[in-house]
Amino acid sequence: MDYESEKVLSDYLMMHYGKHEERMPWGFSKLGALDFPAQTVSYFTQKHVAMSLDLGCAVGASTFHMSKLSSKVIGIDFSQLFIDTANELKENGKKAYQYQEEGNKFIPGLAEIPEGSVAGNVSFAQGDAMNLPDGFKGFDRVHAANLICRLPEPMKLIERLPSLVKQGGELVLATPFSWLAEYTPEENWPKEDSWEWLQAGLSEHFELIHHSDEIFTIREHVRKFQLGVSKVSHWRRK
Ligand SMILES: C[S@@+](CC[C@H](N)C(=O)[O-])C[C@H]1O[C@@H](n2cnc3c(N)ncnc32)[C@H](O)[C@@H]1O
Known about the structure:
The chain is 27% helix and 36% strand. By secondary structure, it is an alpha/beta fold.
């Protein structure tokens, strides 16, 4: 998958901002109602904090959700196209786009930032989650959804997390552990069970508060959807 292509951009605009009936127009209401970016953010405690970070934010819906309870949120993504789009949403509150019905038939859609978000609290920047600026440290909250199995060296991020999150701060990691050699060389895949591997990588510095499984759907066209199940875990920095 190329995160710089217009088609993938429209798939993610639909996943992040699409209306339920557009996202799943087949009456599978439970699947249509799934709002993965809001769902993973809801794992954080409901108190207001100062500084948050959203890694692999794509077109930014989870970053906007985090802005409801954070005075400042930085959304980082490797794709310049996604970051430009997220910035357009921040500036205008909305973005018109086209989503695929079938073949070369596209339908006009409108992405709007979630109600209650505080766009002024949000900033987006292109960056690499494996090589973040040295100044990135001590965040109250760090969120990374469906990112680690898209990184060539996921351990680089896992090892950086203890310094990114301040003591007592929160981490929410979501991942379907969808290991693919096209993103992550096989030698960097977990040798054992992925969930055990993740816990082993985090438990020295983080206490596990809660974990669960969350379904996400990505509409490719009106008759084709990706369906995944992400392991979502909520941690507190020791
Ligand atoms: C599977 S998507 C998940 C996007 C979003 N968090 C969500 O749950 O819908 C993976 C995202 O990670 C981004 N990404 C890939 N490698 C990255 C890296 N090294 N640093 C930051 N973001 C990266 C991609 O551009 C893409 O937006």
